[in-house]
Amino acid sequence: MPVLALRHCARLLLAGALTTLCACTQQQGGDMLTQMREGKPSELFQTSVDRLATLAMRDNLDSLYLLMNKLYQRNPNQWKQAGYLDAASAERQIRVAIEQRTPLTQLGNRRDLAALSYALSPEFQGDRVGAFIYAIGSMLITAHGGRTEFFMTDSIDPLFVNNAARNIEKATWMLSQRQDANGVLLLFSNEISEAGSNLSFAVEFGKIVARLDLLAHLLDERYRRIGLNYAQSLLLMNFLPVQ
């Protein structure tokens, strides 16, 4: 092939590559601007793990509220025990109590594990669905240091997050087993019968446990890496970076 033809081909290839690169850069820049517009200013003060913890908490509370709705459907007499006008009113009140960390009247001053044990005891008299969901929501927030949003200045203990996951596993089992003096389940949830199966409660609780386990592993790895990086710097006699 003549030299001029080769040069012409090279120019065409270079022009094509530059056009593609510019298009990709513009697209990436546009995507970044869109994400920045849709994000909140507070996200600037979050690490990737902080953001993940915030999203996981949001999703876990949403799962909990979905479970509350399903439990009220399976146990329609429960909201009446606390004097609510209807199930929707009960759900709103329980949600506010969880997110604002205010006591639930029927549980007295009990929160977290104390509230969970009481809500699943035969001695409890009241809206057991609301008390059960409130207790789990209260425990989740306590395990995360009393917060639902997380920033660089916050710390979450992975041990407490892991413990919360194990507590939910136990509570799920207790929910399916606890009975009153007449042998009737305290609350109806999962169902396996000849007419069909409904394991949606176990599935939703499983999602919460999975998110908690993932977050605990990520937190543990983050703190482990901080320690390893420091140990490596001592071993190699390197100064630690300051920027």
Give an account of the 3D structure.
The chain has 243 residues and is mainly alpha-helical. The chain folds into two domains: 1-39; 47-235, no CATH class. Helices cover 64% and strands 2% of the residues. It has a two-stranded antiparallel ribbon with strand order 1-2. Strand 1 and strand 2 form a beta hairpin. The longest helix has 36 residues, at 3-38. The model is unreliable at 237-243 (pLDDT under 50).
What is the strand and helix layout of this fold?
Blueprint: H1 3-38, H2 48-74, H3 87-99, H4 112-119, H5 128-143, H6 158-177, E1 191-193, E2 196-198, H7 200-235
Can you list the strand order of the major beta sheet? 1-2
Please count the helical segments. 7
User: What share of the residues lie within helices?
Assistant: 55-70%
Distance between the termini: 54 Å
What is the beta-strand fraction?
under 5%
**Strand segment tally:** 2
Outline the biggest β-sheet.
2 strands, antiparallel
Order of helices and strands: HHHHHHEEH
Give the overall average pLDDT: 80
Q: Which class do the helix and strand fractions yield?
A: mainly alpha
What shape does the CA trace take?
globular
- Note poorly predicted spans: 237-243
Radius of gyration: 26 Å
Query: How many individual domains?
Result: 2
